[in-house]
Amino acid sequence: MSDYKYSIEAKNVNKIFYKNSKEICALKDFNIQIQKGTIHGLLGPNGAGKSTFINILGSLVKKNSGKVCICGIDIDTNSKLSKFKIGIVPQELNIDPFFTPAELLELQAGLYGIPKKKRRTEEILDNLKLSDQRNAYARTLSGGMRRRLLIAKALVHSPEMLILDEPTAGVDIDIRTSVWNYIKEINSKGTTICLTTHYLEEAENLCDRISIINFGRKIIEDSKINLLNIISIKTVCFIIEGDFIIPNDLEEFQPKKDGKKLTITYDKKTTNLKNIIDILAKRKINFQEINTYESDLEDVFLKLIKKN
Ligand code: ADP
Ligand code: MG
After folding, report:
1. Would you say 35 and 7 are in contact if contact means Cβ atoms under 8 Å apart?
2. Is the residue at 267 inside a domain?
3. Distance, CA of 250 to CA of 269 (rounded, Å)
4. Closest ligand 1 atom, CA of 165?
5. What domain range is 267 assigned to?
6. Which run of H or of E encompasses 43?
7. What DSSP designation does 141 have?
8. Largest CB tally within 10 Å, which of 26, 165, 234, 276?
């Protein structure tokens, strides 16, 4: 395996589409570095430019300017080799209905020029839990099976990197969880992953690092943990024993009383939960229950999109 630090490295990528003689700037000076071995999320609303970038990686869309390297290989100077390094799982479930999973994988392996002896059809079908369906027509497969078959197809040439465009769009909850598990498993065995999503929950669940894009521009990129730390407001909820009045020294925490329930918000950068508990103890207010809530990626996302 060749030596490189970034599985994807893109610099100043621009893409303009023309629609009814109007310019659509799908990517504007887009930069990204995806570190080998990680799961990187491209997160953004519909129309942000995510698929455009994926399609540039797969040479399905031609960029107007900029430089893109896949596993250290420039896609402009060595497009054939760069295509061997990645497997792309498209968003649409476009599977030929009259092929069986085994036939489809064999066909795909043939397209990549993989000799019969080196093919991994059975192993891949097994890994993606499709062995029982190996000889079934694709049209008889469920949505979840089709999604897995597309992932299988992208893995035929043992790519160093797997790219998934909206892997769970329009997929129901239990299939979503199983697709997430496959992605994590593939990554744990050493394959770098890049996925696009407009589901915050998906990015939060899967990704080590996240780039948020909107209108073709990258708004921010950071580790998931740092992104979640951008919003430092926490909420704590107490169930109080007996009747109580809100102490004055809690005023700055926007206290809310609702029956036995006392809700307080605080900035974890300046206040510890212990400070609040100490105030309650000093006022002889005892609680039966305590629950704290962290902000999630949705809060970060809304804050950033608003700011930009
Ligand atoms: P995302 O995948 O984030 O939803 P896309 O990359 O598909 O966004 O689209 C980005 C923008 O480019 C959108 O405004 C979309 O309408 C436009 N676009 C994408 N592909 C084409 C195309 N082939 N022709 C014209 N406009 C396009
Ligand atoms: Mg898309």
Report:
1. yes
2. yes
3. 17
4. 2
5. 233-295
6. strand 39-43
7. S
8. 26
> Any idea what the CATH number is for the domain that residue 251 is in?
3.30.70
Which residue matches tokens 């000889």? Answer: 135
What amino acid occupies position 42? L
CB 107 within 8 A of CB 157: no
Ligand 1 pocket by Cβ (under 6 Å): 17, 19, 24, 26, 44, 46-52
- The residue nearest atom 24 of ligand 1, judged by CA position, is 17
Considering the domain boundaries, does residue 260 fall inside one? Answer: yes
Q: Is residue 61 part of a domain?
A: no
The minimum-distance atom of ligand 1 relative to the CA of 19 is 25
Count of the separate structural domains present in the chain: 1
Q: Whose CA is nearest to atom 27 of ligand 1?
A: 17
Residue nearest to atom 12 of ligand 1 (CA): 26
Q: Is the pLDDT of residue 203 over 70?
A: yes
Name the token pair of 207: 């990704």
Q: What is the pLDDT of residue 2?
A: 60
pTM: 0.81
Residue of 19, 20, 22, 24 to test ligand 1 pocket, by largest number of atoms within 8 Å of CB: 24
Residue 55 lies in a domain: no
Instruction: Express each pLDDT in 50-60 by its tens digit.
Output: 999 999 999 99
